[in-house]
Amino acid sequence: MKGKRPKAIDLKTAPYPAMPTDIQAQFTALNTIAEGTGRITETVFENRFMHVQEMKRMGADVDVEGNTVIIKGVEQLKAAPVMATDLRASASLVIAGLVAEGDTLVERIYHIDRGYECIEEKLQQLGAKIRRVPA
């Protein structure tokens, strides 16, 4: 990974005006490469950590305990084929893939297309090395 690693954070989701559940998967991805250990507690939806197993395939040190995920940041994620399970999880896998070493293939991207129009083009404009490949 290039540059300085972020610091791990703790986060608890809750209804508005608290931390929205829709960003917990993305913060999980952030914590996978952060310095230290972060905890994310999901209080709104059950079974909202489907992305965790996919991040483990990339070398993330992540464990689920009830409604909390504990993430110990690693220096570098490794590319792996991963499968999106929902809109937010797919966004988190794209984030993880962008910081991983090598080429990550995210399967079932129709999930991400439901909420992020032309995400690869927008990320390319920010300097990301990302492309859509035919199935």
UniProtKB/TrEMBL annotation:
Q: Which SUPFAM superfamilies match?
A: EPT/RTPC-like (SSF55205)
Could you name the domain of life of the organism this protein comes from?
A: Eukaryota
Q: What is its main location?
A: cytoplasm
| Cellular localization per UniProt | Cytoplasm
GO MF, one term, reads: UDP-N-acetylglucosamine 1-carboxyvinyltransferase activity
Biological process terms in GO annotation: cell division; cell wall organization; regulation of cell shape
> What's its EC?
2.5.1.7
One cellular component term (GO) for this entry is: cytoplasm
- Pathway assignment: Cell wall biogenesis; peptidoglycan biosynthesis
Q: Which family does it belong to?
A: Belongs to the EPSP synthase family. MurA subfamily.
Can you say what this protein is called? UDP-N-acetylglucosamine 1-carboxyvinyltransferase
Q: Which organism is it from?
A: Capitella teleta (Polychaete worm)
